[in-house]
Amino acid sequence: MPRVLSDERRDFVQAISEFCRRECGSKQQRDELTDGGTHLHNQELYAKMADLGWLGVHIPEEHGGAGLGMTDLCLFLEETAYGRAPIGGFATTIISAAAYAKFGTPEQKRTILEGVVRGRVEAISMSEPGAGSDVGALTCKAERRDGGWVVNGQKTWCSNAHLADHVLLIARTGSGGTKHEGLTQFVVPNGTPGLQIQGIDTMGGREVNDLYFTDCFLPDDAVVGTVDQGWKQLMAGLNLERMILAALMLGTARRAFDDTVAYVKEREQFGRPIGTFQALRHRIADMATELECARLLVDDVARQIDEAPERTFPREASMAKLKCTELAKHVSLEGMQMLGGYGYATEYGMEALLRSTVVSTVYGGTSEIQRDIIGKTYGL
Fold first, then answer.
1. Which of 182, 183, 218, 312 could serve as a FRET partner for 253 with CA atoms 20 to 30 Å apart?
2. Are 155 and 123 in contact (CB under 8 A)?
């Protein structure tokens, strides 16, 4: 069924679509913006979106943003992903910004949130070599010393730290109670002495980093929220993170699907377009149906969050993340199969879509973790 949008939202989506076609619609443009696909974020393009006011879609109005809800944020994410806009820094930026908006001091809010609206990138660092899905196993430690905190330890898989103005660090500040107690969030400006950022090369390009903290001193006003309450603060933002990833992968899945359909309509073998063969036609039909289901799920969960922003929606947000990431991976892999050898060639772009989707079922909580969360909400 067609998506029913207000006139304002329809105009918003159309403007994003036209921008992406104009600025990054061709492979040549995207290669120039990303150094041949090596870098997933282009700051010049990002700044243009900031000038249009789009990066502040989810930022409170008192800090220069539009103050809009989850529905509008998801529309922006989906459409930029569909348009293959190289703005990989936006996802971690908006996740970090939400934490500052909820728990930050007035000065932190002013600095971070107004910077986001102007086009600055932010990052958040949770994972460690021994703590991925098990966030409570964090060992990177911040100790009180000399009127502030001294941080020592390693973080890993930190997306966009090399681009960010600040890193929102989750570190251990206490050892009593359960493993989820004694965590605290800190804002760490990029370039702080004692912080080393080292890139990790991946099949998707230059995106993630190892962070090394060696006697890194942070003043008391670097604490975000309440000392030792970092776990509760993290839990308050998980629905946002999962919906961001769901919307991004919904847009990516749509793009992979449309590119596949366009190809099978034109490619002829045995005297007719290959899309007319039942084997491919049925697979296209199945993917189209699944895409519609995913879109309806994302739209519905976003609406529920907008109607009750104080709730966390663990089941619904996990369902959206699980569905959209698994579907995006499936559609791009099917697209590669249907394009045959051309699916493997960089010229057609399907291989890039596949590389960007295979990791989506890992980051932001693996599919296995999402299933576990959903099961627990049923008392299992």
1. 312
2. no
Paired tokens of 246: 């769901």
Q: Which two tokens stand for residue 70?
A: 């989850």
Instruction: Identify whether the C-beta of residue 283 lies closer than 8 Å to the C-beta of residue 289.
Output: no
Q: Point out the least confidently predicted range of 50-54, 135-139, 153-157, 355-359.
A: 135-139
Alpha-carbon distance 345 to 367, whole Å?
Answer: 28
Q: Which of 252, 195, 186, 170 lies closest to 223 in space, CA to CA?
A: 186
Q: At what angle do helices 350-358 and 314-339 cross, to 10 degrees?
A: 150
Residue 179 has pLDDT above 90, yes or no: no
Known catalytic residue: 78?
no
81 pLDDT band (50/70/90 cuts)?
very high
- Between the CA of residue 52 and those of 123, 320, 330, what are the distances in Å? 22, 29, 34
Tokens 């922006």 sit at which residue?
A: 76
Are 338 and 260 in contact by the 8 Å Cβ rule? The answer is yes
Q: Which of 23, 128, 207, 241 is catalytic?
A: 241
Two tokens, residue 33 = 């913006």
- Sequence-distant (6+) residues with CB within 8 A of 7 are none
Give the C-alpha separation, 311 to 70, whole Å. 13
| Distance between CA atoms of residues 183 and 213, nearest Å | 16
What are residue 186's DSSP bridge partners? 169, 223
Q: Do 167 and 1 touch, CB atoms closer than 8 A?
A: no
Inform me whether the pLDDT recorded for 126 exceeds 90.
yes
